[in-house]
Amino acid sequence: METSLVFFPQLNMCESKEKAFFKLIHGSGKEETSKEAKIRAKEKRNRLSLLVQKPEFHEETHSSRSGHLAKETRVSPEEAMIWGESFDKLLSHKDGLKTFTTFLKTEFSEENIEFWIACEDFKKSKDPQQIIVKAKAIYEKFIQNDAPQEVNLDFHTKEVITKSITQPTLHSFDAAQSRVYQLMEQDSYTRFLKSDIYLDLTEGRPQRPTNLRRRSRSFTCTEFQDVKSDVAIWL
Known about the structure:
mainly alpha
């Protein structure tokens, strides 16, 4: 009995030592890993600091900025003048579309051109499943009530789209796209041709910085029925 009483505590003591040993090993391993990570992070910061101090780094940054500015001003006055011939010619030109989008952002109405572009892309869809997915995305982003970028459409046009959205076709948004196109052409396009953004290009002047802002969502006719048309229609 005395032997067994002495023997079992020794086993327990051995087990405790083993647990303490493994805990010490694992703990030191984690500590070592943490130290190595800190060392590597410090080395990365040092390398980055040396890179920033190199003159060639600043030259590359400056050249990339200059290249970006060059891209912004690469439109010639002759090209810009063509945009003034018709709204269709403006939208069919890559830089014209980009410049008009920038203008709409200053008037809180970029959802109109983004919807038009989305419809153009949608009509190129060929796969039936792709048509369903894209139609649903356009509907949720631009058409349904309280959509994040809801465009201003009459009740009948929205109702027709809503009823057909479960079985869309490539022509599901034709009426809505035509409506938005007409409103941009009659309203936004006219103001665009008188804007500094456009006139600076036609006269070859350096582009001025634009104050781009974004509102939460579009105004709608039902919310502002008593407001003048040039304000009620998105702008």
